Amino acid sequence: MSLELSTDGPVLVIGAAGKTGSAVSRVLLARGVRVRAAVRAGSPRRLGYAVDPSHRIEVDLVSGSGLAAAMDGASAVYHLAPNMHPDEVGIAERVLAAAAHAGIPRFVFHSVLHPHDHRMPHHLRKADAEEAVRRYPAGWTILQPAAYHQNLLPAALAGRVEVPYSLDTPFTNVDVGDVARVAARVLTERGHHGATYELAGPESLTVRDLAVVARDVLQQDVEAVQIPLETWALTQGADLPDQPRHDLMAMFTAYDQSGLCGNSWVLAHLLGRPPTTWALALRGEA
User: Fold this and answer.
1) Which residues does 109 contact at the CB level (< 8 Å), separation at least 6?
2) Contact between residue 27 and residue 183 where contact means Cβ atoms under 8 Å apart
3) For the residues of 97-132, what is the DSSP string, one character each?
4) Residues 6+ away with beta carbon under 8 Å from 43
C-alpha cells in the first residue's frame, strides 16, 4: 500500500513568500504537488518559484480575511506564522478553524525547537499554538526546527559574523532545505498524524566554531565578533517595534546563557540521509 496521501487538491502554504515557505513550496513543486501560496497583501507578485498565478492568494492572518478562500479545496495546510508575531496563538486558532471548516485532512504547524523555554516569549507563544494544533479534529503534525544555517550564511560569506551573544555557547543549526524536505514528506505521506518532530542539525558548533569552519571552506578571512546587546538594540534593533525587539533581546540573552541545541536523529531518519552540515551549506552558497 502506498504511503502517499491524496493530493488532488493543492497544498496550502501559509507564509509562502518567506524563507521557509518558499523552500517548502519549491520542494513540493519538485515532487509534482500543486501549491497554493498564501501571502500577505503587498507581497511580491513573483514569488521566486513557479507557482501558478491563480494559486497565489492574499490573506490577512490577523483578521482572518482570505482564509476561507485559501482553504477551499486544499488537501493539506502548512502553517508558518509571521516571525515574532504577538498574536501567534490567535492566528493559529483562526487558521485551524478555517481548516476544520473546510474539512482539510492534514495540518502541519511550523513551531520552534524547545518551545517551552520560559526565557523566550516567542517560544512560549509557539508552545501555546502547539496546544491549539493538537486539538485539530483531523490529522496534524508539528515540526520544531532549530535555528537555520541560512541565518548566518550571508554574514559568513561577507567575512564577519557579528552576534549580540556569546561566541562560545553551542548551537545545532539546521538547513532550511532539510526542513523543507521533511515538511514535504509529512504533508504528502501517511504515518505522521500526531507526531511532533524535533529538527536539529548534525553538529554542535559555537559561533566561534562556525567562523573557523567558514574560513576553511571559503578560503577567506571570517571573523566572529560579539557586540553588546545594548549596541544591537540601538543599531539593528532600533527600527523594530517594541515587542519584537524585546522578544529578540530575550532570545539573545538565552543564547548567551546556553545556545540552542537539539538532537539530529529524527531529522536524519526523516531525510533518509545525514542532515546538511554547516560546511555543506557554505559550499552550496559559495
Assistant:
1) 79, 92, 129, 130, 133, 140, 141, 142, 143
2) yes
3) HHHHHHT-SEEEEE--SSTT-TT-HHHHHHHHHHHH
4) 17, 58
Q: Do residues 27 and 180 touch, judged by C-beta distance below 8 A?
A: yes
The alpha carbon of residue 198 and the mean position of all alpha carbons in its chain are separated, in whole angstroms, by 12
Q: Which amino acid is at 143?
A: L
Model confidence band, residue 286 (pLDDT cutoffs 50, 70, 90): confident
Gap between the Cα atoms of 8 and 34, Å rounded: 9
Burial 125-135 (b: 16+ CB within 10 A, else e): bbbebbebbee
Q: State how far the Cα of 217 lies from the Cα of 153, in Å rounded to an integer.
A: 12
Place of cell 504547524: 109
CA distances from 224 to 66, 149, 166, 172 (A): 44, 15, 10, 17
pLDDT(51) > 60: yes
Burial of 46 (0-12, 13-18, 19+ CB in 10 A): exposed
d(CA 20, CA 38): 13
Q: Which residues in 69-95 are b (16+ Cβ under 10 Å) and which e?
A: ebbeebbbbbbbbbebbbebbbbbbbb
User: Torsions phi, psi of 131, nearest 5?
Assistant: -65, -40
Query: Model-level pTM?
Result: 0.94
